[in-house]
Amino acid sequence: MERLDSRVRFIWLLRSLVGSLVAGVVVTFAVGAVDRVAVTPVVAGGAVFVVLLAVGALHVFLRYRAWRFEVRDDTLYIERGVLVNVRTVVPYVRVQHVDARRGPIERLLGLGSVVVFTAGSRGADVSIPGLVAQRADDVQETLRRLAIESEPESGDAGDAV
Amino acid sequence: MKLHPLSVPVRIVSRGVGLAWAFIIGGIAFAGGDPVLTSGVVVAAVLVFLVVTAYEVAYYRRFDYELTDESLDIYSGVFSRREREIPLRRVQNVDVTRSFVARLLGIAEVDVETAGGGGTEANLRFVGRADADHLQEAIRERRATLDRDESVGVAEEPEAEREAVVGGETLFELSDRDLLLYGALSFDPRLASGILAFAPLAAPFVGDRVQLSGPGLALVVALAVVGILALWVASAAARIIQFYGFRLRRVGDDLRYERGLLQRRDGTIPLSKLQTVAVEENVLMRRYGFASLAVETAGYGPGSTPSGGSEAAVPLAPREAVFSLARTLEDFHDFDLDRPPERARKRYVRRYLLVGLAVLAGGFAVDRFLTSVPWYVVAPLLVLAWPAARRAHGNRGFDLGPDHAVAQVGFWKRRTRVVPYHRIQTLIRRQTVFQRRWNLTSVVFDTAGSRSISAGDAVAIDRDDDVADELVDTSQDSVFDAIYRSE
Lengths: 161, 487
Description:
The structure holds two protein chains of two kinds. By secondary structure, chain A is an alpha+beta fold. Chain A folds into two domains: 8-65, no CATH class; 68-149, FACT complex subunit Spt16p/Cdc68p (PH-domain like). Chain A has four helices and six strands, in the order ααββββαββα. Chain A has helices spanning 8-33, 41-66, 104-109, 133-149; strands at residues 68-71, 75-80, 84-91, 95-101, 111-118, 125-132. In chain A, β1 (68-71) and β2 form a beta hairpin. In chain A, α1 runs antiparallel to α2 (41-66). The mean pLDDT of chain A is 87. Chain B folds into five domains: 7-61; 65-174 and 245-269, PH-domain like (Roll); 177-243, no CATH class; 274-340 and 396-484, no CATH class; 342-391. Chain B has a seven-stranded antiparallel β-sheet. Chain B has a six-stranded antiparallel β-sheet with strand order 13-12-11-16-15-14. The model of chain B is unreliable at 153-157 and 301-310 (pLDDT under 50). At the A-B interface, β3 of A face α4, β17, β18 and α15 of B. Chain A: This is PH domain-containing protein. Chain A: It holds the Pfam family bPH_2.
């Protein structure tokens, strides 16, 4: 089974940092606006920030440890989730299209994500974040090829919906 | 083809009057009695109305649709033009809706849905009634021809067969008696339980004004009963108006349904696009041996589902009749559901107990810090955790057949969903941290159907970890079998 590139933790951590920062600032102002609270606004905001960041960091750590995927013969297998462990099996036959995406931070770190779309209502888009750029292109290309190859020759059973 | 000329006034009224009215109300409030400002507002409202009128006239003049052998082409747009071509083979549903006003004027609204994107792909507001019926029928016919060409390679259409197809075969008709029954039985018990949940909280406030002994108590109880009855009657009336004159027909390879007292709805669902079939029974229906049938296609987007949440469904029929009808649509096996392991039931007992204790703790906190409530009266209800757990356990299960997976869930409303293997899109195993303690896993059979957002997925809840793994492996093989079998 394949793991994500370890640098993806940096992206997730950055996201949780931004989230905690926003929450901290909001709490600071909220406490500032209400007079009846005994703590100073900066302490309250700082505490919220630190706690959220700690929880976020723990989550990132566990999330990275839980993430794995495998490009199998007929299916794409993905396992992820900290609180809810989710294992998804996507038959290539069901793949509608495959995207390779690279956000600005991902680009800085030389990473990329692959997003697989099916017609399903729930697992409609399955994304694999944090792959080395080269590997992301590889995976996209492989999935694309496999999706086309797996198309049944006749009948409309292969029709997506 | 153009829209019906009457669509112009109807559209103006439905859009323009509302807008102008809002303008007047808001403007007068803003003017605050000043005569100059008030008359200015009225002038502005008239101007708005005129603009809307001009827009709708232009919309009508610049709207054009055409049904070719292979597609429905629509040219629309006043300022930015849009040409849309919908391949008939991709069409999922064709709905004709006639509101009360539209029926008086002899016009109808036509909606065409495909599986793609959000929202309705083609919305014709409004066309003449005959045109709407013709459009619906023509789309069905041409799509059938296209499908036949595809599978056989020869376009032969015996005249006799075609004649037989036109009227269709009535599969189900809701009699007036069943309609009334449906209204009465389809009452959502959650409404009542919501009221009951609030009752202990409301009691002290009422209690301040009414002596809570003798006549006062009787008054409270009477009020509650009347409230529940009123809710029931209202929900029954809504259902009856919605499903008045329900009829389900099979026309060629399509299902066709019509219903509604004030607003008539007439929809088609191609059987070749059917995703899942679901038999649903709420508490009352189960008590009296009735059930309803819902079918699911990929056409409707979430939120745009026709009212009631069920598409071409049988609203109410005896249980056996529903199952035999379901089997004519999707030929599934005689299933024997496998229930979750016994430890799952223990888990439910604990869960319900915890919920009950949380409610008690909440009541205690309210009593202690806010106002005095008789929080302890709920305590005896904790005993209910055991029967509730048994019920939840007894209503969950799955079975894998030769061509279909069957999954059942539901506490108040039991849903038995039949998923053909060749419709499964992805297989998902889910395990929450709470389930992990008990080594239980849920398996979701995801399809392209659109109801899973409102009605939940087809899911085998709380299976043994090993059973879940096996379940996924087996159904994965069955999916491939079903897809490649035709080769």
